[in-house]
Every structure is written in C-alpha cells, then in structure tokens.
Amino acid sequence: MPEAGASPELAPSLAALREQILDFIATCKQPMLREDSGEPLAILTGRFDLRIDNSALLLEAWDEHHTIARRVVSARVQARALLLVIRKFGGREGEIAISDTARRGADLDRNLRRKNFRERFRALLTRQFPGWTIDKLTAERDLHRAFSEHYVRALVTRAGTSWAAIAVSEAEQESAASSILTDGLLWLDHVHAAGLCLFVPERSAAVTARRLLYLNHDRAAYRLFPMPPSDAAQTSVEPLAEIDPADFGNLATELRPPRITASVAPEAREKLRAIASFPGVEEEITPQGELSLRYRGLEVAHANTIGATVIDAAMSEVARIRTPDTPDRRHPLYTRSAERWMESLVKADVSPLALEVAGSPVYSQVLLEAGRTRGIMDLLAITNAGRLAVIELKAEEDTRLPLQALDYWMRVRRHLERGDFQSHGFFAGRQISPDPPLLWLVFPAIRLHAANETVLKYFSREIPVTRLGINDDWRKGIRVVYRG
C-alpha cells in the first residue's frame, strides 16, 4: 500500500528505490554517507529517515552539528558504494555516496578520525580562548590555496582582534606534523589575522619551534602550543601551556669532513670497473664513505665494504634515454632523480647561477640531515667575497621548499658560527666570511608554486633569500631567466 502523500503512479518506483537504499544500508556494519566532497556522516538509528512524501523520496540524516535533507532521484551501485543522485533545494543536482566504513577501512577511518579531531580542536579553542568567537573552523582541502586536509584551520576573534589557528592530530604522519608551519602561514595570510597559533603534537614541536625563530615577528605574532596525547587532551580541563621556541636549546646537527676516498671492497671495485669507465659516469663519495657512480645524476652503481649493486639496465640504454633530447620523456631512466640531474649540471659549472660563485667548489649534502629523502638537493658554495651560499634545487612545484631550505640554512649557519667549515677542510685556501650564509632557491621559473612567495614574505630579514628561476629545458644547460 502506498505511503501517505504519494501519488499512485509514482509510488511503486519510489517504493522500490527506497527499498533498494534500505537493503543496501542493512548490509553495512557501519553505514555512512557523504554528499559530494563534504564531511562523512554516520547513518545511525534515530538519526536517519527515508520516506516518500509529496511524490518524492526524501532522505534526511543528522548529527549534533549538521543535517542533510535531500530529494533522491535515482541510485546505482558502484564499487562498494551506493551512489544516489539527489536534487538540492533550487533544483541543482548532486550526489550522495553511501558506503560501509567497516569495508572501506583505512580511508574512511581516517576521514572520521579527522572529523573527530576537528571537534576536539573546537573544544580546545573554546577552552584556550574563553570569551573569543570561533568564526571559522575547517579541515577542507583547497588546492587553489594549497590548504591540506591534514590540518584543522580556525579563526578566532574578539573585540576587533583576530588570530589564525591551525592544528594537526597525532594520528597524522610525522611529515604532516613537521610541515604544519607552511599551511599555517598560508592560512594566516589568507585570513589577514594579527598572529598565528600553532597546535602540534608534543613529539613534533621542536621542528616548528626552531623555524619560528627565523620568521619576521614584526609582520605577525606566533604562539606555539604542544598538545599531549589524545587521551590526556580529552580529559584535561586546563588550557594548554604555551612554549617559547627559544627554550628548545641548541640545534642538533653534524658536519662531516669532505671525504677523499671511499671504503669499498676490492671485488666490488673490480665489478664496477666497466661502469666507472663509461663516458659521462661520475664518482661521488657519500658522507658515509661509500662509492656512488652516477650518470647525469642517476645512480647506476653503489659500492661499500660489503659489496656492490648496479642498475638493471645496460649503460648504452641509460645513455640513450637519459639525454635532453630523449625519444621517451616518460621513461623512468629519464624522469628519475631530476634534482640529481640538475645538481650534476650545477656542480660541473655553478657560474650560470651567479658570477660571484664562478670557480667555487660545490659540496653536496654535507650535513647528515640533508635532503635525500625529501626531494630537494642541498648544495654549498662560496662567493668570491668568501660568503657561504646555500643552494637548494627543486625540479617540480613544492609548497614545502622554503621551510625545508630554511632547515638546511639554519644548520649551515650553526656550523659557520662554530668555525666548523674551516676546521673540517671545506673551501681550502679560501677565507670564509662570518656573515650569514646566502640562501638561493633554484627551480624552473614556470614551476614556482604561488604558495612559496607567500611563505617567503614571512621570513626574517636576516635571511638573504634569492629566488633563481631557470629555463624549463634546463637539462640542455642552465640559464637564469628570473632573479628575485
């Protein structure tokens, strides 16, 4: 029998649609729905309704914070989800996906964890800033503004004063926690607040604290709040204690003297003889004293006291593919280790970047904290006037470039202040200036991420940053086309 309010001719198809949806939900252990790219909403008894009313199938779901009310037009199964075509108020169509969090596992668990953390952060802000209004609170990804979904962003206001706030959960990866300042500065710039409050897990606070010391505090104020583990945070009724970034003590860093010879087993050296003699192959001695053979930056062999490994390709094939005029620009032998290729060109001749470093030795990855795992090459040169120049190479867009370059710069400065470069034999015969090192960011000019400019304007004036945009076809030879 048709439900009240349904017309006789529409009721059977609507009833079948309603039954299809309810049957699907019944198969789910933890059903949830998501409208377009919005937040997931759990489907719970007493908080979900699906009824036929006035010749339409109406869906309603709600929790403590928001409600979804939509007219369902059709449904189809796709992968492990039931996709509903819905009509919003005003006639616009959209889509709702119903799925089982128990089946979909990690992705949905992560989304729900982030949603829970957002509400935890709301409560924390209320406790931290009594009497202030939370005007904005979001964790939505925004590719246009380079905002990541890893962070919850907020704006708190009172009596005409506003502060930006950003937090990261302990459940996120360490890389997200250590990169929070990038998103924080972008958010601060977007909302035009007087200052920025950063809430980071206790275990990750040191990285952000040390970076804060090198920002321009005349442009904005900064406050850092380490967060205890979630269990302690949820039971606490006290505001978090703010910490002074200067209280983290000396920067831990290690500089190793440049190595002249590698520690390699005799049989390994013999195994690599043919590759080492191939035209264009260069030898590099790693900070660990191992031997790396590279062709245009691509490692083709590696040896130590234990043995040797070689690339799974003939050197003639490597040379055919890894050339600026390659017939296959998608081949891994061409695309891999782009920054290393760029590095090989700079080390061969650094003068295209600036005449003031012409003839300078160029050292690569001299610190143990160097960026092999982060896709940025750290080089060190010296100007004709004796000033150190930290050169950061990046072949692709990367919002993290400025702050990761800052990490390396602050460590180089630390060793400079201690006289380590002179005592360890770097730049032999040259007088090293005590002035702060120069910081050069080198990248293809058309690939500078707009977010980099925003972050850089918050740097301290004592950091002499120069942006060197190079030609996009840099593999044919480096030319600076933009300097700023």
Question: Would you kindly provide a written description of the structure presented here, covering whatever features stand out?
Answer:
- The chain has 484 residues and is α+β, with helices and mostly antiparallel strands.
- The protein folds into 4 domains: 94 residues, Protein Yojf, Chain: A, CATH 2.70.180; 141 residues, Trna Endonuclease, Chain: A, domain 1; 69 residues, no CATH class; 146 residues, Trna Endonuclease, Chain: A, domain 1, CATH 3.40.1350.
- The strands form 4 sheets. It has a 7-stranded antiparallel β-sheet with strand order 2-1-7-6-5-4-3.
- A hairpin with a 4-residue loop joins strand 3 and strand 4.
- The longest helix has 23 residues.
- It is globular, with a radius of gyration of 29 Å.
